[in-house]
Protein 1
Amino acid sequence: MREKLLSGDLWAARIDKLWKEVDDGVYWIRACWYMIPEETVSGRQPHNLKRELYLTNDFADIEMECILRHCSVKCPKEFSKASNDGDDVCLCEYEYDVHWRSFKRLAELVDGDSDSDQEWNGRKEEKVDDSDEEMELDDGVLKSKRGGLTSASGGANSCKGRFFGIEKVGMKLIP
């Protein structure tokens, strides 16, 4: 079976969704495809293992009867423990973007890890006035209904040199 997968006669997929059509009773799945290294832009490299696959962002809705059998795709830690479990065990350490032709290492959550944003919120956040105060633009100067003046030349997300919301999206304090 592994030889057919590696030759491109078979494909591996992760099942993301399963449903039954009301009209004809046919079962369908949404499959997120895996690729073998030969199908990527860089091809198979010397560091690739024989049973290595890449998870892609390519998906399709297919009939469930197209599924031949179950295979296991594991992270590197689990794969090292399951190396003697047969040919239907594969390794997946990276995700491959078929549109941008780029690789991204898949994050592993080890026991005890949590999904926290502590790394991103390393510095104290500035106090920001979140009031819905109305502002008017007059010749490049924002006039507040409270009477204060602010400059409008800072940008769409800024007011008095402070940025609102952008520091939570992809910014990290570099020591």
Protein 2
Amino acid sequence: MVNPNGEWRWDCIQHLLPQAALLTVAAIKPSFTDIMVDYVGWRGEEHRNFTVKSTYVICSNRLGNLLTNGERNRRHLTNDSSCSIYGAALEEVSHVLRGCVESRSLWPRLVKDDKLNKFLRMEVKQCLGANARWTVPPRHWIKVNTDGARNTNSGLATCGGMWRDFKDKWCFGFSRALGLCSALEVKLWESGIFFAVGLMDMKQRCWDVQFLFIRREGNFPADTMTRFTRQGTSDYLRFMESQVDV
């Protein structure tokens, strides 16, 4: 896409992009091919590295562009804006996610009973951030959630975790400042502290131990525990009473 003189090869790209995009490209000085080569990057971050956080921001901002029949009708792609499953007059985002009988039957399995009505009355964007729930482990089991957090600007990191039993009873919690860490080092610290504070005790008691990956939305109690210590300190806090509402 760049000629030997370090200029854009407009003959290769001008027929592929709209005028607004071409003007944006024109403002960017291309690199010489002998200095560096093109590479695939994630546009959600300036450093072009993929992150879950930037993905969530992008998806949240585009929520209104979900191609419902109502949106398709607005774009003149169809004359029918109704729900094709249960015949609602207007199929819009709120209907697809909560109003339709099919989707409405799903939420009681994901949201606690005492919070369900409030959840269903929220704005769509607001409710999507509140629909995660922590679930109790099987009978006679204890669940341990751990998580780490790292400031991408400063590199300072913390980790934390909690133990709860099958009756939702708080057993133990911790939060520790880690100093300057990479994302990988944060995960190693997070796992290492878990081993140090509990696994040996479990083995001595002849307990069964299972390791499971929990998605970020369901691991929010551990994420909250990472915030009790101050980044850049040597704090290590232990909590014998519950600090998180799950």
Protein 3
Amino acid sequence: LNFRHLPPDCWGDCSQFLQRQRVLGIYRNMLRTIRQVPDEADRKYLADWRETHIRHQSQTQDAIRMMITQANNHLEELQKSLALARS
């Protein structure tokens, strides 16, 4: 992303906004994916895991970026596992 066209005092707020949007997008994708898990106990476990690993509002920007990457990786793994279970 290129923030050069924005005033410098906006860069921090804009990047925080964009990171928040990414986190919310991952959170929504996790909700959708977890709903597809057939076993209710597994859905509960995954929902608890999601709450533990996604909701970190007091983290630094670097930590948030790292958690976004990890959450995306976990989500992709879960989606692949579900796809394999269906086939």
Protein 4
Amino acid sequence: MVATADDMAQVLRAALAPTQLEVLDESAAHAGHAGAGPHPYGTHFRVRIASPQFAGLSRVAQHRLVYDPLRQMITQGVHAIAIEVLPPVHPAATPSSLQAPPSQNS
């Protein structure tokens, strides 16, 4: 089975409930390099992810949380995963919090 970016995203969504997730297949850029498969896809990925489960963890622990659910894909031919842990997303300011205070002339 050749892994796809969609497969990887589905596994990560189920395991980490990310608030942001982008999975890119960068395999074509690695053609001819170690670990490149016979196809120009399915071996080298970039994962950009934010998850509440990363709070308070070291970078190594955060990366382990990403790698662990992908272990089966790794044993089936995924050669490299570049992980970018994104900062948590803060709730957008609500319109009411942006309103001017009431006038003192009322």
